[in-house]
Amino acid sequence: MRLTTLSLRNYRVFRELDLEFPAGLVGVYGANGAGKSSLLESVMWALYGRARTGKGEIRTSGETGECVVELGFEHEENYYLVRRTLSGKNATVRARVTIADVVVADGVTDVSKYLQSVLGLDELAFRSSVFAEQKQLAAFSDQSPDQRRKLVLQLLGITPIEKARDTARADYRQRQKEHATLQSILGTLTTSEERVALAEADAERSAVLLVQTESEFASVDAHRQAMEADFSRFEAAAKESERIKLLGGAARKRRDDLAANLQQTERELHDVHEAQEAITAIAPASDALLDELQKRLDRVVEWQRAKETLASLAKPGAMPTPDEDGVFRARHIHDDAAAQYATAKALLAAARARLEKALVVAQRHRDLTSNDSCPLCGQKFESGFEEVREHGRQEVREAEFEVTQHNTAAQDAKDKLDAAVTVLRRLEKELDSDRKALQRALQVAQSRADAEAAAERAAQQLGSDNAPDAFAKLREGIAELHDRRARIAQLKERVSRLSVLEKRQVELTAGVAAADMERSTLLAELKALDFDAKQFEQQMQKLSDARTTANATRARLDAARVAHARASQQALDAATALAEAAEKQRALEELELDARYLGRTADLLSGFRQAIVAMVGPQLSTHASALFNELTASEYDGLQIDGETYAISVIDGGVPYSSERFSGSEVDLANLALRVAISEQIRFQAGGQVGLLVLDEALASLDSDRKDRMLGALTRLGGRFRQILVVTHSPEVKERLPQAIEVRRVTGRGSTARVIDQAPM
Description:
Layout: E1 2-11, E2 14-20, E3 24-29, H1 36-48, E4 67-75, E5 78-87, E6 92-99, E7 102-106, H2 108-119, H3 123-129, E8 131-132, H4 145-155, H5 159-185, H6 189-281, H7 287-312, H8 324-366, H9 385-462, H10 470-495, H11 498-529, H12 533-632, E9 638-641, E10 648-652, E11 655-658, H13 664-686, E12 692-696, H14 704-717, E13 723-728, H15 731-734, E14 739-746, E15 750-757
Parallel strand pairs: 3-13, 3-14, 8-12, 12-13
Antiparallel strand pairs: 1-2, 1-4, 4-5, 5-6, 6-7, 9-10, 10-11, 14-15
Helix pairs in contact: 3-4, 5-12, 6-10, 6-11, 6-12, 7-9, 7-10, 8-9, 12-13, 12-14
């Protein structure tokens, strides 16, 4: 197996990446957190759908588009392309495998089964032998003994031998069971031969009865056919008679419909002639007269509307007089009160400040003693400090009295200001109301003056139509002229259909005549046919009797055929049973022979499996020990692989010790040696190269000397593997590898990767 291409879309830190993997030894390097492990994890995700987190966290953060991973790889001279996607809010997984654009597996389950069959490895086997993820180099040795044994047998192809052995044993037991069952149910051949003789005799009797019934049916069916021929002639005449009657009924209906339409057309023609006479009798209305009457009517309507508007308007009353002076005086009083209140508040604030100062001084005086000195002259108070204290208290009392007086004055000023505000607001509200009332009164007076002027103009235009009933008479005259015009238009519309009605009258008259002629012809044909319905019914009854007799005879013939077929089948079944009994006798002998062969095959497969298992352990120890000595510069005597549990022991001073006794670097080297040994064993058994080896940060725990030896060993292993990927964050390591893939961060919290060709140092 060799990885060739990798395409990522919205996969973890890789929003968009297209990468081609080089062959041979390749370093995958980058800073910690750049995305190296995510890059390799995408390979496991493509092949097995495995990720270190839930599928809801695989898609790139902040992206809602489809997450796509496409992995191309070569294996056994075939090129495979695996595509696995996540889409939608529920992160629905889809998978597909193609070879040369041909889909060979579709769906998550089918893809997993197909890839396991192609690679011969499930996920656990792949990670334990081929794909060593970060901090998982010991994934194989960390398994339980049973798991390690099962994994090794699977990787080395021994599991199919075990399955073949178990299948042979199961087949052996099944053959023994089948032999015992067949032997218990198999009877003697003599009984089967007697059953064959009885069945053949029954078949001969049923054959004789069948021949007799067939002869009887042939005679009865010939009579039925003759009756069928006679009846067909009567049936043809009956169908022709029915056809003529149907045509005659249709012709009669058509004639009646045409006659009814002709009568309706003649009535419409009569109405048209009357309309022509009515048009002449009705005098047309003059357009000039109609326009004059309409203008007079419009003037009357305008006069009436002006009168109604004038009547709807109220007469203006007395005009209100707004009190502008009262508001002015109230505003002046308000401003004076506001000024007095501001002055009172300022005096109150000054008095309170003096009170606070006096309180501070008095407090300081209370703390004085006879031994203190005066802060002004520097002399000791002695007995005079009581006078100083009393002076401080007096200043406090005077300041408190002053605050009380100014507080009272400020409250009085506040009350006067509130009263002035109330009066001012009331007078301003009344002034606004009077102004609005005055405006409305002026508008009413103007509207009434306009209405009176309009009514006067309309009355002057009336002239002679200024009568109480002028409006009604004008409307009646106009309506009469309109009715006359509408009546004439209707009559002209009716007269315009005259030519159409006359043409229709001629066509309908001809149609009635043609229908009468068709009916006469059909009646003559019906008379010439000379069909007798009673004789037709008698012939029908004779045919029915012949058919009933033929059907009854046919039923007896079918029963005879069924009986003969049953007897013949019973004879055949008896003969077949006899042959099967003989065949079962031979099969019984063959089952006994097969059981012996299968038992021997199971024993041989078991011995073959034990021989391979006995050989695998020493070979793994040899290969792993050689590589371990190379990596450790023969610091230890080698490795030993247990032939049953496949556990790793390090031989030190000729004594094997468990790997738990040694440091982490020795354990990593031992596990690496075992992984390569297993791969070498697979190559040996398959006769080809192993293909792929992936090591994620496998060198991180090694010191400088062992790291150099590991790099040298990996370089030499490049000849055994088609592709080795070494993941590292160390520039020192990546510069010693012939080819490298650089993984680096880009803007927007993402990452990218590219292939860099470089010469080893």
